[in-house]
Amino acid sequence: MKYFSAAQIQESLRTLKPYNPFFSITFLVLKKAKVPVGSKKRLSLDAENLEFLKAHFQVHPKSKHFFRVMRKGGYAKDWVEPNYASSGLQAVNTQSFRDALLHEKNDKTWGWTEGYVEPPGSQDTSH
Length: 127
Fold this sequence. Notes:
This protein is an alpha+beta fold. It has one domain (18-111). It is 31% helix and 9% strand. It contains four helices and five strands. The chain has helices at 6-16, 26-32, 45-56, 88-96; strands at 41-42, 66-67, 79-80, 101-102, 109-112. The chain has a three-stranded antiparallel beta sheet with strand order 1-5-4, with no helix packed on it. It has a two-stranded antiparallel sheet with strand order 2-3. Strand 4 (101-102) and strand 5 form a beta hairpin. 16% of the residues are buried.
């Protein structure tokens, strides 16, 4: 069995740090749930994100906090609060990535917009 060295873990965390946490949590949760492109599917995203955080970012079973791997904006905090899925992460999902997601406020349906993987402004509208 191969183990990761402390140096490799530190380098990996340093490399991931500048990215938005959306990509390490919500994006994966939505992909696992097979959320459609161009239409919406019923999904309790906050609850699914919380389960994902518990499974992959809760370092110690007695802790209610989650380790922060990606921290766009340079946040110094290594840990996020137990309500992160329904507070901070929800704001990221509905504000920072609103153009990529089909979702209405106070609705439990989610979908991907057409072209959600394209960088903003890259779609050719000359057709």
